[in-house]
Amino acid sequence: MVSAPVENSDPREAQGRAPGLSVRALQDRVTDFARELSEQWPAIPDSLGLPAPRPEAEVGKALVYTINRFCAAQGETFSIDRLSENIETLAADALYRVRAYRNMVAEGTFETAFQPIMDIDGTATHHFEALVRFGRTKLDCSPFEFITFAEQVGLIHEFDIAMCRKVLDFLVEKAAAGRHYMVAVNLSADSLANVSFMAGLSNLLSRYEAVRDQLIFEVTESAKIEDLASVNAFIQSLRGKGHMVCLDDFGSGAAAFQYLQALEVDVVKIDGGYVKSAGATAEGKLFLKAMAGLLQELGIATIAEMVEDQEHLAVVRDCGIGFAQGYVFGRP
After folding, report:
1. pTM
2. Fewest beta carbons within 10 Å, which of 97, 136, 150, 195?
3. φ/ψ (deg, to 5) at 52
4. Contact criterion met (CB below 8 Å) for 291 and 269
């Protein structure tokens, strides 16, 4: 069935068959492989406390992901014949990636790095942001590629739960040694739109009552949120239980202020592009200052990201921003 990868071959060099495989024939092949993949599909780890989804949707998304990667790599040499010849390899790759992903999530075999968020004078650490790190032997991809894969295949909510659990375990361990930290964990917009994730996160937090109030949540990719009302309701339930909530990468999308109006949060992290612009032009600085002033009037704390040097720090301080994150204070 799904076997080891096969080498690409040029269909124009094939002998004894007519060129130009039909799209319908390719669809039939993909459907057959999807059916066989569903029978082998790895189950969601029990340790995450999430309901088991039907594999069909995941199989389809994983196949689309690997096919898109193949098409992009082929460029102008792409053909239906070549895709058909490699569909078995692509199906095997989809199965391998999801299996490796779920094994990593279940076993927690990824690392966390922590970057400080400091007050604007650099005299006190407000909290740390938890970031994923892992060796390339795990999935042979960067953290960005890892997150992109999980989002496109619809598995990011599993990782978000696993990351929360790992950070909570870290907080328990440090608390036992008399050290108490505030740590921010990223929550994908896709996760916040997933009802089973919301229930799973609530159940997880209930098992860590001693340290749960040390957890801050950062909402990422807010531009992808469609049902703002339901996501805001969940955010308010987190805030009602004592968690600070931060809106990440503010300003990076055209509808940033719409999301700010719809999602009631405690903190806004201003996109690093505005920090760089403020350091480069007078207009950029005026824009950043106006943005910071509006957020201050709304009673929302502000964090400037990508503050890399003392010049950037001086600019964001002049703009009235309260906190900063970047290499000027420390790498993750």
Report:
1. 0.84
2. 136
3. -75, 120
4. no
Q: How many CB atoms lie within 10 A of CB 288?
A: 25
User: Nearest to residue 265, comparing CAs of 288, 231, 292?
Assistant: 231
- C-alpha–C-alpha distance, residues 92 and 159, integer Å: 22
**How does DSSP classify residue 133?**
E
Residue ranges in the chain assigned as alpha helix (H): 23-40, 55-74, 80-107, 143-153, 156-176, 189-192, 195-206, 228-240, 256-262, 272-280, 282-297, 310-318
34-51 pLDDT, tens per residue?
888 888 889 888 888 888
CA dist 46 and 106 (Å) reads: 8
Place of tokens 């993949």: 37
Angle at 60 between CA 59 and CA 62, to 5 degrees: 65
The C-alpha atoms of residue 63 and residue 36 are separated, in whole angstroms, by 12
- Ramachandran angles phi, psi of 77, nearest 5°: -85, 0
pLDDT digits (tens, 9 = 90+) for 134-147: 765 456 677 888 88
Angle between helix 156-176 and helix 80-107 axes, rounded to 10 deg: 20
CB proximity list for 144: less than 8 A, separation 6 or greater: none
Answer whether residue 244 shows pLDDT above 80.
yes
Largest CA distance in the chain: 75
HSE-up of 162 (CA within 13 Å, CB side)?
24
**Tokens 């309260």, residue located:** 322
The DSSP secondary structure of 271-316, one letter per residue, reads: -HHHHHHHHH-HHHHHHHHHHHHHHHHTT-EEEE----SHHHHHHH
